[in-house]
Design a protein that fits this description.
Elements lengths: L14 E3 L5 E3 L14 H6 L5 E2 L6 E4 L8 E5 L4 E2 L3 E10 L2 E10 L2 E4 L17
Antiparallel strand pairs: 1-2, 3-6, 4-5, 7-8, 8-9
Organism: Streptomyces gamaensis
Protein name: SH3 domain-containing protein
């Protein structure tokens, strides 16, 4: 596969399933993959991308998108996370900025995007349902 996502050999499309259970077929736009508000690249590669947490921080993982939710675990320093989906919640200030975006990293597991180096001040993947 080249840098644009095309398969120069003309092989069959690769089916990629992300941890949120969204399945997409790389290189196709057909009705089986119709998800109107999400670009194909975000659907296809959501599971393949991991992001580092802010260097030097242990990050709380909470049961909901706010600091009042229970801490379910703590990510060690220098962790990387895969973001399943993102949602709006409580505004938090951290080393990566001030934001109300929270990253869902597993069922009932949320991390403030203020502690994740996504390279963006906005959404980088699909919104949580």
């Amino acid at each position: 596969m080249n840098e644009t996502g095309e398969d120069p050999a003309g092989a069959e499309p690769t089916v990629i399933e992300d941890p949120a259970g969204v399945e997409a077929t790389e290189g196709t736009e057909g009705p089986a993959n119709a998800k109107p508000d999400v670009p194909l690249q975000a659907r296809s590669f959501a599971a393949a991308v991991s992001y580092p947490v802010a260097p030097g921080y242990q990050v709380n993982v909470r049961s909901g998108p706010n600091t009042g939710s229970q801490v379910v675990r703590v990510l060690p320093m220098d962790s990387r996370i895969q973001i399943r989906c993102q949602t709006r919640g409580q505004t938090v200030s951290g080393p990566c900025g001030t934001t109300d975006i929270w990253d869902n990293i597993g069922p009932g597991q949320y991390v403030s995007d203020a502690y994740v180096k996504t390279g963006s001040s906005g959404f980088v993947t699909i919104r949580c349902a």
